[in-house]
Amino acid sequence: IIQDFFMKGEILKPGQSLNLQLAKKIAKIYEIKISFDIEETEEEAIENPLAEIEKYFETKHKDSQNLVLRPPIVTIMGHVDHGKTTLLDYIRRTRVVEKEEGGITQSIGAYQVEINGKKITFIDTPGHEVFTEMRARGAQATDIVVLVVAADDGVMPQTIEAYNHAKSANVPIIVAINKIDKPNANVELTKQALVSKLSLIPEDWGGDTITVPISAKKGENVDTLLEMILLVAEMQEIKAIPDGPVRAITIETKLDRGYGPVANAIIKDGILHVGDYIIAGKVLGKVKALVNDKGKRIKEAGPATPVMIVGFEELPDSHSVIYSVESLNKAREITEKIREIEQRELRKKRHMKLEEILKMME
Ligand code: GTP
Ligand code: MG
What we know:
Elements: H1 2-7, E1 17-18, H2 20-29, H3 49-62, E2 68-69, E3 73-78, H4 84-95, E4 110-115, E5 118-124, H5 132-141, E6 144-150, H6 157-168, E7 173-178, H7 187-198, E8 210-213, H8 222-236, E9 239-240, E10 247-256, E11 260-269, E12 272-273, E13 277-280, E14 283-292, E15 297-298, E16 300-301, E17 306-312, E18 321-325, H9 328-349, E19 352-353, H10 354-361
Parallel strand pairs: 3-5, 3-6, 6-7, 7-8
Antiparallel strand pairs: 1-19, 2-9, 4-5, 10-11, 10-18, 11-17, 12-16, 13-14, 13-18, 14-15, 14-17
Bound molecules: guanosine-5'-triphosphate and magnesium ion (MG).
Family: Belongs to the TRAFAC class translation factor GTPase superfamily. Classic translation factor GTPase family. IF-2 subfamily.
Domain Tr-type G: 69-243
Keywords: Cytoplasm, GTP-binding, Initiation factor, Nucleotide-binding, Protein biosynthesis
């Protein structure tokens, strides 16, 4: 089949999913009897309930009188082992004044620190190549991207990929040229690579990209990096709706041993309270507990606060936006609609694998 189709100029690959149309075409050519259990019936359209909820937030955001400044959400990105987590660890160690009491530090993938009275929320992302989705999500969720590039390694594949995510999300990029304490570090060469591979021209070379040479391990110049982040954030005037319903972005979801299904999230708008009804895609819940990045239970969480949300009925998708809704009934109604829409999509999109067709020929 692959060969025949290739001759006709259509490329099929082993393992490829075929849509209904193509599967039918193949079945016809090779005289295979396939029972497609998909009926293309006419169904009344269901309006996506999330569209209406999003509209509320968009409308509120249009009127800046409703809004307050919120701390920036900054995502640390870069190639594997270039020092993202080390940088965040250093910042946390030196900037988290409050001693962690009453709780084991919860790793929620996001942290808030305070610099001269100003807060910054950081999201860490993994550099490994399989985590493309997480990096894309990180870039979407963020106000500023700090691109960490090791000065002894230069611009590498996941540096480029991270850069592309930041660019398509239209987010300002600050480059942290890391590991300058290493004997084989070469800042100049790294800057050259920024220019040649990413077309990012450093400010000191006449361009407009802020680059800060740092050592995440020794802490050298990290203060300058933080100042730059605050500077860029200030120019952006990042705002949030101070009260009312909540919109939060998910960093990750997981089944916690003690807490059950949880979502690590950052509040974007509104204030989330213990007891609120929430939805995340097709999953609903009632907030049983909120745990902050210091492992402490809190009663409420406002804009830019990283928080672990406990109380979902099942594990939500890691890419779903979390909203608070006024009642359990409302939460049910919305999530049931989303389920129905998803099931319809699945029915419509039921694909066949080439291998499935071959089996029917045997
Ligand atoms: P992934 O999360 O796996 O993508 O890696 P990462 O970017 O978070 O790197 P990580 O912080 O885990 O650091 C990788 C290694 O580089 C560790 O052994 C760090 O100690 C080391 N490292 C990070 N920053 C520096 C630095 O400024 N100087 C030196 N000498 N080593 C560093
Ligand atoms: Mg890391």
